[in-house]
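Supplementary Methods S3. Input chains for the assembly prediction are listed below.
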Amino acid sequence: MTARIDARFRLAASENRAALVTFVTAGDPDHATSLEIVRALPGAGADVIELGMPFTDPMADGPAIQAAGLRALKGGETLHKTLDLVREFRKSDDATPIVLMGYYNPIYIYGVDAFLADAKGAGADGLIVVDLPPEEDEELCIPALAAGLAFVRLATPTTDDARLPAVLKNTAGFVYYVSIAGVTGAATPDFNVVSSAVARLKKHTSLPIAVGFGVKTPEHAAAIAAGADGVVVGSALVDAVKSSLDGEGRATPKTVSAVTDLVSALAAGVRRGRAAA
Amino acid sequence: MTAQPQLNSFRTGPDERGRFGIFGGRFVAETLMPLILDLEEAYEDARKDPAFKAEMESYRTHYIGRPSPLYFAERLTEHLGGAKVYLKREELNHTGSHKVNNVLGQILLAKRMGKKRIIAETGAGQHGVATATLCARFGLECIVFMGAVDVARQAPNVFRMKMLGAEVVPVQSGAKTLKDAMNEALRDWVTNVATTFYCIGTVAGPHPYPAMVRDFQSVIGDETKAQMLEMEGRLPDSLFACVGGGSNAMGLFHPFLDDKEVEIYGVEAAGFGLSNLNAASIAGGRPGVLHGNRTYLLMDGDGQIEEGHSISAGLDYPGIGPEHAWLNDIGRVTYLSATDDEAVEAFQVLSKLEGIIPALESAHAIAKVLEHAPAKPKDHLMVVNLSGRGDKDVPQMAERLGTSL
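Predicted structure tokens for the full assembly:
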């Protein structure tokens, strides 16, 4: 079920490095450009693509990802189009895992069974749905596992040892550790605290642990990569999209390279992480 | 065909997962989940504690000024020529609306949990003012998130909150109204988990909020029942209340849900009309998930949330409390709607006939009383919840009626 994800984390481990998980929002700044960006990510050093499904009310996201979602929605992105994007990407890349990240309402309105069938058919590997804690597993997590899609759970600084088993129970693919109590793209985490949190999680699971929230620079990526199995970068990448746009908010010839240049630098940072440690 | 199970009571919800039928639940990020479980436990503990109840009773009497009167609106009744209309005078509470009933309960709970920093969202500003008031009273830090559009149209309440020592944060994201204020409050909560208590202003959000806020507001219906029995020797025949998130309505309705002879009507904001921009989630929405619960929401075909529109900032929310959604689906409560124009008319009628200037929110309920009362017999007892006073709306009404202040 999680073959592409497992293979990619195994590959990174065999190279004694963490995997680089890159988040971009589908349809940002427009559908065609975002397909180009996604296609260019693996070549720039991304191991896993986390593809944001835009939503009007992203309660767990900071200003950067909120703005990316609104740009995409303004450009006419829908959940159907996001699945088309995955399908297009798969025509030329059958190895890079894609994890769809978003909020439950658009999926609920699409129809859970139809969404799972279409996402699987399009070539997605997993889902991260922020507003579905283990208490709501019957909504989507359990059907997703049955449909052959990994349900990647977030563990956070407020998830204590008593609660961790419930959080990890139906998790597949990898565990996403949220480095800070906060929204995406906010404060930079304390790397020592993160490292002990990763060690704590490893006592409870053999799944790879990817760490995200507040990771912005190659230096941050290197610091996290020293101890984690994966590093997630999102807000910094959508900020790169934003700063490449023209005065009307449209893509420019620099948009794709603005993202891939940063991804290349982050990939180098991830590769330095273990060497430094 | 299998028979629908007959409910013995409409008052037993929610279940242990926070569900009212398919509605409600706990759709929150993992960071918040442990906090919500803590809150549920603390609330369960408090509600069983006679000392908590006694403390709340004392502040209700001496600080809020309860019980609020149930007032026979004689001239309105004469004018309409039908049902005998009573007003439940929640606008006479300290701070000028029903919102304080809930805030008192939550602030006493926050105090019990040792939380020193209180955050709240507000639309019209009534919940923000009530929260700022109780925080001043108990010496707690208070931060109120308010859409930038609402900050502009509810200037008197913004100033009141500042006078009370609260920080008012104008929210610039989305449509800059109540929904966006709630998003921003949730983002703050997720960031300040250790110190912060989120005081939600309505019967919505993740479990246990819808049930807890309902319990704190049920004093409205409990009093109404006792007062009507004393004044008329029987229960009312019908109840009316406006519904945004629906806390004043739930507070009035809940104690009457099992009195099956009492007709119950919630009134949503129809804005420019149901075929136009509005905030009527039940009339114009469908079930979806937002702000921690499943309920009726205004949205497009892709599941993107649409902005509510209403002249009243307090009803301008694209959702409704999950228990209302359930009461609608099982048919115990009938949900109607009133347009901006109908509310403006009702605002003026009540002001002139009874010398009571209602909040624009409450004017939506009055509008449906103006419509329904004339057709009822003279012995029909109709209660409308006058949830707030209209002082805050005076500048906006003056502008609407072409008067410059």
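Chain A has twelve helices and nine strands. The interface with chain B takes residues 55-60, 62-63, 66, 73, 78-80, 103-110, 130-136, 153-160, 163, 167, 178, 181-183, 186 of chain A (CB under 8 Å).
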